[in-house]
Write a structure and sequence with these properties.
The chain has 421 residues and is mostly helical. It contains 14 helices and eight strands. The protein has helices at residues 2-9, 24-36, 38-48, 59-67, 70-77, 83-102, 104-123, 197-218, 221-231, 249-269, 272-297, 305-316, 323-347, 364-403; strands at residues 127-130, 136-139, 141-146, 152-161, 167-178, 181-186, 238-241, 244-247. Helix 12 packs across helix 14 (364-403). The longest helix is centred in the C-terminal third of the chain and has 40 residues, at 364-403. The protein is globular.
Length: 421
């Protein structure tokens, strides 16, 4: 970070970006103190980026790195810049150096994976794709959603223990009306701690699956037969631990070579981004057909409020909307809001009442219109991801030609806990 700082501070990213122009010496002092806050400034980006966090979303962490360091906080408060401005400086330094360290291709790959979720979330459909093992899986969220069926009346009671020790149910007089729900796979669910489940999950699931595939493909089929021949036994001693193995000295050399062969072949030949792109294209098409069918069959019926809320949020933030799309969007919102006010004036505001916001009043026809307004964004995300996938595929193929028959050493001995030399 220190070595690249001089050039970065003199770049257009820094010049004119703050209330007072940043100078090298001041930024260097901020950076030196931030680096000392290892747990908040250095460790989180390296730990969280491989598990789905985008570089852009690391900005709040930079502010935390300032506020949790008394020395840095005092220095910032005594400087010409605000805490937000210094956190922005640190974020630019971090982003610049992550790209230097990991390489632009890794950053592009990470972003392309997340971009694919724009298509699946617009469709609220899972991304179904083929793994390197040849099996099929999906990137999705799973949530309980209303079935639309009639409510069910449930009896509320208590449990007690009879004199003989057996459980006894005591039925009360209270009744609870329950809306039937079913588990549905889609892409709009959120994680328990907040944030999109598919956007946060696509990168770790796609990449970690590569490690699992290396193990699975090594110890199955022709690779397993080759390992049996090389070790001279029907059952070579190998214990897999997801992305690692334990072996005996007798099978260590052959098992390590086999695993490295499979990892090299899988990494170069399997196109995880291409497979996910194909799945996202299919998800978007399936979602379009689903919403179009609902709009034709029951145009004025109420649509999925969660899906409507997603489009309202995304489209309202879209700065590239053309005039026609913007008019159509606000017309839908005005109509839904007017009907919500009609409901409130007719029935009153009740906490038990289901229709509480404009998204609850969006119709099937309007939801399909919102989908089509947003579709250029989803199409563009697919286009950009495919371009990255094609570029990385060519580079992997070139790497394969360069490596030729040279062995890979991705897997190597980790720990020899005890050995009598």
């Amino acid at each position: 970070m220190g070595n690249s700082l001089m050039d970065l501070v003199g770049s257009p990213e820094f010049n004119g970006a703050y209330s007072v122009d940043a100078d090298y010496e001041s930024v260097k002092r901020f950076l030196d103190l931030a680096i000392q806050n290892v747990s908040e400034f250095l460790k989180p980006p390296i730990m969280t980026m491989p598990y789905g966090q985008a570089v852009e979303s690391m900005k709040p962490q930079m502010l935390r790195a300032i506020t949790t360091s008394p020395e840095l906080l005092a220095m910032v408060q005594g400087s010409s810049w605000s805490e937000v401005e210094v956190s922005d400086m640190l974020h630019k330094i971090l982003a610049h150096n992550l790209e230097i360290t990991l390489g632009p291709d890794v950053v592009a790959f990470s972003q392309a994976m997340k971009d694919l979720t724009q298509a699946s979330m617009a469709a609220d459909e899972p991304i179904v794709y083929q793994k390197a093992t040849g099996t099929v899986t999906s990137i999705n969220s799973a949530d309980y959603v209303p079935t639309g069926g009639p409510t069910v009346e449930a009896k509320l009671g208590t449990l007690s223990t009879a004199k003989d020790g057996s459980p006894r149910r005591n039925e009360g007089k209270d009744r609870l009306k329950v809306h039937p729900r079913e588990l549905k796979m889609g892409s709009l669910g959120v994680k328990a701690g907040g944030g999109s489940a598919v956007k946060l999950g696509i990168l770790p699931q796609g990449v970690i699956g590569q490690d699992g595939a290396a193990i699975t493909n090594t110890f199955a089929g022709n690779s397993w037969k080759q390992l049996q021949g090389e070790t001279g036994t029907k059952s070579p001693y190998v214990i897999s631990i997801y992305d690692a193995i334990m072996t005996s000295l007798g099978s260590f050399e052959a098992a390590s070579a086999a695993l490295n062969r499979t990892w090299k072949k899988t990494t170069i030949e399997y196109d995880v981004l291409g497979e996910l792109h194909a799945g996202a294209v299919e998800a978007l098409a399936k979602g379009r057909a689903k919403l179009h069918a609902a709009a034709d069959l029951n145009p004025d019926g109420l649509a999925d409020a969660r899906h409507a809320a997603y489009f309202i949020d995304v489209i309202s933030k879209d700065k590239a909307l053309n005039a026609d799309a913007e008019r159509a969007f606000w017309k839908i919102l005005y109509d839904a809001d007017s009907r919500l006010k009609d409901v409130e004036s007719t029935y009153g505001k009740s906490e038990a009442f289901r229709l509480k916001m404009a998204a609850d009043l969006i119709t099937n026809r309007q939801l399909f219109t919102l989908f089509m307004i947003n579709k250029p964004n989803a199409d563009n995300a697919l286009y950009l991801s495919k371009r990255v996938a094609n570029n990385l595929k060519m580079k992997r193929e070139a790497l394969g030609r360069e490596l030729g028959s040279n062995p890979s050493n991705q897997y190597y001995p980790d720990v020899l806990k005890s050995f009598d030399f």
